[in-house]
Write a structure and sequence with these properties.
Blueprint: E1 14-15, E2 23-28, H1 32-44, E3 47-52, H2 55-66, E4 77-81, H3 89-99, E5 105-109, H4 114-123, E6 127-130, H5 135-145, H6 153-158
Parallel strand pairs: 2-3, 2-4, 4-5, 5-6
Antiparallel strand pairs: 1-3
Helix pairs in contact: 1-5, 2-3, 3-4
Length: 169
């Protein structure tokens, strides 16, 4: 199935989860192999996965799937690399948070430093996973998010959760 936006012909792979457990995740990762592994992991957790290969595609999908306000096109989770071509994951998260404070966002990065962690915390990321990480660490975060209703204000105050600290408020 092809997914396209109105502003550009953006073609993304679209994977369906079983109907009984249908949840949607938006995944942004510029490395095709890593994107494939993350998408397979999310599908194994019952998500239909929309994949973006760079920050521009991520921004377009945030605009059309999250900020458009249509429940049928919405997403339940965003997983994004921080460093990738186009707007990075932090810029995309900032754009999202200006209008949506409830969609959980998990950031992944191979280039984590204190400034990155501080910005992720300020923007309300629910987790920050440092590459390389075990796929079970992503599964743990996703399972903690089952039943997630809205972003808790205490997440921003407590900071992003690292792969080794997957406690989610």
């Amino acid at each position: 199935m092809t997914y396209s936006t109105t502003s550009a012909a953006l073609s993304l792979r679209h994977h369906e989860a079983p109907a009984a457990t249908r949840r949607r995740a938006l995944l942004a990762e510029d490395d095709p192999a890593m994107r494939g592994l993350l998408a397979a992991t999310l599908r194994s957790e019952g998500f239909e996965v929309l994949e973006a290969q760079n920050g521009r595609e991520l921004t377009l999908l945030i605009d059309t799937c999250v900020l458009a306000g249509d429940d049928d096109d919405g997403v339940d989770l965003i997983v994004s690399d921080i460093r990738m071509p186009g707007p990075d994951g932090l810029k995309a998260l900032a754009r999202l948070r200006r209008r949506d404070g409830s969609t959980p966002v998990v950031l992944v990065t191979a280039f984590s430093d204190e400034a990155t962690r501080t910005e992720a915390r300020r923007l309300g990321a629910v987790a920050l996973l440092d590459k390389p990480f075990e796929l079970d660490e992503l599964r743990t975060v996703v399972r903690h998010l089952d039943g997630w209703v809205s972003l808790q204000p205490s997440v921003a105050a407590d900071g992003p959760r690292t792969a080794r600290q997957t406690t989610i408020h």
